[in-house]
What we know:
2 domains, 18 helices, Rossmann fold, single chain, N-utilizing Substance Protein B Homolog, Chain A, four-stranded antiparallel β-sheet, eight-stranded mixed β-sheet, 450 residues, alpha/beta
Amino acid sequence: MNFLSARQSAFIALKSVHKGAFADVALDRVLANHTLSDADRRLLTELVYGCVRRMRSLDTLIDQLGRKPALSQPPDVRTALHLGLYQLRYLEHIPPSAAVNTTVDLLKQNRMGGLTGFVNGLLRQYLRLREAQDPLTLPTDSVERLGVLHSYPDWIVQTWIDSLGLEGAEQLCLTLNQPPSIDLRINPLKTDRDAVQTAFEAYGVTTTPLPPLPQALRIVGNSGPIHQLPGYGEGWWMIQEASAQLVGHLVNPEPGAIAIDLCAAPGGKTTHLVELMQGSGAVWACDRTASRLKRLQQNLNRLQINTVNLWEGDGRSLSAEIPLADYILIDAPCSGLGTLNRHADARWRQTPESVQELSELQGQLLSAATQHVKPGSGVIVYATCTLHPKENESVITRFLEQHPQWQLDVEKVASNSILEALQTEPGWIKIWPHEQAMDGFFMARLRQVF
């Protein structure tokens, strides 16, 4: 497939996104229907995720350079302008002439030839203005400035400024606009990290360990298709980001224990619990939807793990068939603000209202979990991949106020060599991507007061 075809594929995917499809689903659908070289796959992926991620910045440029605001443009013209402006502004390896000409050709290919003059003129106006200064005029208000420059809703920017200050919030915005890393968690029931690293090196893929995580490898550079990497079919490893691996170590389950993963699909943390328990004991993986449990089962099959019990249902009302647990992990549904580099459209889908709804659900899951741990000895680990205090600190603070028989297990975390350096003064763990080079996560280990 030629260079222009990658842009046409991106155009098709972005049209779906603008009609409501999730970016990853739209991209996967296009990839499944087109045969692409590795270079074209990378360009297609960059264009789709980049245009979605930078939507506010690109729309603001159209507002400022065009005769009509971005949202008043014909939808397909807006999509084409996004593709052209994204290449001009963010892809230094694309020659400006190629970015302009292929965008014009894209209009002709999609029966919009009558608009080529307008699009060509706007893109070339951007290039002329760029010779003197940045064509993007920024607001004077600090929140709006960061929102327009780095392409985030104002409410997210304000949340991060409240937590980190202006400079820290901008660093976080910058970090979450970078391409995400690919981390692996080695399955110690099948192999070890050195063996996987050696196999990858022989295959031509470079990896690096991630101390202090004992099972983690980060891929350096391009990996090619994941399913073709050494050990994929043999279950040697699973893709799991470094912060998510920390959660399993926070649970730190003993071999032979009973553990429940309350919101388990697609199974990354479930399988990690099995590995940490050395394949002994019992793990129950719970989720509300059959389709998500099917995906979890596929991961169990590939890793050749057959000791997990699946249960379909709402984690707020567990079945009596599930035994009381030594450990309950709540990887709670959340707004995902710590993983915006992986989920390009999440910043546009979440709202302050959805965050409030999620906070209430998270509290309900925590309260329900207290009824299904072994009295006096059970442990609950709460985790999210968001960076909003309403879903994190506020949920735990409210839970402790309403459940005085529970407390943060500060001593256990402090004695864990993998986690001790990450523990905050209150006793929970919060990972900031711009500081720790991992996804944004919050996690807390809770135990009963004796």
